[in-house]
Amino acid sequence: MSDAWPDLSALELLMAIDAHGSLGEASRQLGIAQPNASRSLRRLEKQLGVPLVVRGARGSHLTVQGTVIAHWAGAALAESRNLLRAAKALRDEHESSITLCASMTVAEHLLPGWLGQLRHHHRRLGIQLEVQNSTTVCQRVRNHRCDAGFIETPDIPNGLHSAVVARDELVVVVSPDHDWARRSRPLSPTDLISTPLVVRETGSGTRTTLDTALAHLGHIQPLLELGSSAAVRSAVLGGAGPAVLSTLAVAEHIHSGDLIRVDIDGLDLRRSLRAVWSGERILTGAAGDLVRLAHNTLTRPH
After folding, report:
1. Distance between CA atoms of 27 and 35, rounded to whole angstroms?
2. Do 274 and 164 meet the contact criterion of CB atoms below 8 Å apart?
3. S-S: 229 plus which of 70, 106, 249, 279, CB 3.0-4.6 Å?
4. Are 134 and 203 in contact, with CB atoms under 8 Å apart?
5. DSSP-based three-state secondary structure for 230
6. Where are the alpha helices (DSSP H) in 31-133?
7. Predicted structure pTM score
8. Residue 209's CB: how many other CB atoms inside 10 A?
């Protein structure tokens, strides 16, 4: 007799033989080819070390030992079904809610639209959103605190997978009464780095993109460091000084004339916004659907 766990499908076959009085009928009821059923039964008898079925011209019936095994098999199969139901309930509960982390620009300007589309496919989905700067988003995703994250920084930490979900560009903006608002010529990168700016905090995607673009010239001079694009924008609207912000954050204010966009030559401030996740390369579940939806929106012809 082997101490290995018996094959549950063989136990199910044993109970079906008892119920139908025939190996052939039991095989048909379970959708098993009869030769395969016979082999499965022989393996079970060998494993348990007792005869389980008596085969005769009029059918098959269980031995005394087989009857005892079938009784315990019923209890084992019932508990196995309970286990599968519990696992399904846990899976459904996990899939019924997701936790997302997003940088502020993505959370404010892009994620609401994506989540609205996701609702068409997952109507009962619960969504928890944490808004952090890009560095913190990556940390939380890597620590499995979020199912997926959305960031603005070009630097993807080791151990995370990523996919581009949007394109963006940073632009220089000033209030209408700032000297730069009346310039007839574009700024140079040197003009930008030699001027104190209202900036996002270190660790934000906007700050990282700007620092990286100007790294060959030196370090920017922060006039104010603020924790959100909305705060930076308000400071510029109030006349504090120039700033470099995402077009997503300032497009309406530029259109209304409340902010003036100042052109700059010789500096590429375009960037890709990305989804990041840990674990398997292919992100599954509702979080995976969200990332694919966002990516498809990016690649869809306009």
Report:
1. 9
2. yes
3. 249
4. yes
5. helix
6. 34-48, 64-95, 104-109, 111-118
7. 0.66
8. 24
